[in-house]
């Protein structure tokens, strides 16, 4: 569980799930398209996520936009995906950072009120696949570094911490 001192009214749960089947991913995409309230989660492909810092930056910016009524998207979950993206286009963010059948692992984010129970969220994520401890190394291993560098227009960076900082910088500079 991630805590943001600036937002004590929220609990942020972040899970890394492996072993998602194509059928499970197709079902998730259908439920998201139908706006099923039971699927009020942010489902991120691990292809372009290299660290927890990158995720935390996106979540923090999204919560900041949400609490100040300045969101660019309709939902907080879509705002998280937009804040991961190096371009300020929601369709591009959903296409690149949203869950897809091309990747069998996903980062699942759920933002709750401070008093809400987390047990249902944990059961839900466990029903989708194998929940793996989320660490920088685990994220880096699942990322497609060649695609990551192409999306963020990074040529020379190799160190994971450099990739993280450059990706965050690209997201900040995109004009939001």
UniProtKB/TrEMBL annotation:
Keywords: Nucleus, tRNA processing. Pfam families: CGI-121. Component of the EKC/KEOPS complex that is required for the formation of a threonylcarbamoyl group on adenosine at position 37 (t(6)A37) in tRNAs that read codons beginning with adenine. The complex is probably involved in the transfer of the threonylcarbamoyl moiety of threonylcarbamoyl-AMP (TC-AMP) to the N6 group of A37. CGI121 acts as an allosteric effector that regulates the t(6)A activity of the complex. The EKC/KEOPS complex also promotes both telomere uncapping and telomere elongation. The complex is required for efficient recruitment of transcriptional coactivators. It comes from the Eukaryota. InterPro entries: CGI121/TPRKB, CGI121/TPRKB_sf. The keyword Transmembrane helix does not apply. It is found in: Nucleus. Belongs to the CGI121/TPRKB family. SUPFAM superfamilies: PF0523-like. This is EKC/KEOPS complex subunit CGI121.
């Amino acid at each position: 569980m991630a805590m943001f001192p600036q937002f004590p009214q929220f609990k942020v749960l972040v899970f890394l799930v492996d072993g998602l089947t194509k059928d499970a991913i197709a079902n998730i995409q259908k439920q998201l398209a139908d706006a099923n309230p039971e699927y009020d989660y942010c489902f991120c492909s691990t292809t372009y996520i290299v660290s927890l810092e990158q995720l935390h930056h996106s979540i923090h910016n999204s919560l900041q936009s949400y609490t100040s009524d300045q969101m660019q998207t309709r939902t907080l979950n879509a705002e998280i995906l937009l804040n991961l993206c190096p371009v300020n286009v929601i369709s591009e963010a959903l296409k690149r950072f949203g869950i897809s059948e091309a990747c069998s692992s996903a980062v699942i984010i759920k933002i709750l009120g401070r008093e809400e129970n987390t047990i249902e969220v944990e059961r839900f994520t466990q029903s989708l696949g194998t929940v793996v401890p989320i660490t920088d190394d685990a994220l880096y291993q699942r990322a497609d570094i060649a695609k990551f560098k192409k999306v963020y227009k990074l040529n020379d960076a190799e160190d994971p911490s450099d990739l993280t900082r450059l990706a965050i910088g690209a997201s900040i500079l995109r004009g939001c």
